[in-house]
Amino acid sequence: MFHAKIHRATVTEADLDYEGSITIDTDLLEAAGIRVYEQVDVLDITNGNRLTTYTLPGEPGSGEIKMNGAAAHLIHPGDLVIIIAYGSFEEDELADYHPTVVLVDEKNRLREVRKG
């Protein structure tokens, strides 16, 4: 099940020379309940590319969404992305289950946090 997503964030930087991953403003990670080093899918709204990577902590309050390594070939600064994390749940945990959705503005500042 998807447990959290950061919806329609703008990629701020891409670094081909980094070993890999996505760097995300830690304020956004915390709001979504996504952990540092957690596996995420990154869906590029702008060009349709999709990839799986893991998160690294970005400067709090910076709005940073930085594609690192090979991912920087597929997703570029200015692209809009959805970042999704998944989790495993027992059936009894799903009765009142609602994922966390973080909405941001054009500068990746926290606009709203929704449950469900």
**Average pLDDT, all residues:** 96
Strand residue content:
over 45%
Give the structural class.
mainly beta
Overall, the morphology is globular
In N-to-C order, the SSE pattern is EEEHEEEEEE
What proportion of the residues is helical, as a percent range? under 10%
- Cα end-to-end separation: 12 Å
In spatial order, strands of the major sheet run: 2-6-3-5-4-7-1-8-9
Largest sheet: 9 strands, mixed
- Radius of gyration in whole Å, from Cα? 14 Å
- In total, the number of strands is 9
Could you explain the architecture of this structure?
With 116 residues, this protein is mainly beta. The protein is 6% helix and 47% strand. It contains one helix and nine strands, in the order βββαββββββ. Strands 2-6-3-5-4-7-1-8-9 form a nine-stranded mixed β-sheet. A hairpin with a 5-residue loop joins strand 8 and strand 9. The radius of gyration is 14 Å and the shape is globular. It starts with a strand and ends with a strand. The model has no long low-confidence stretch (mean pLDDT 96).
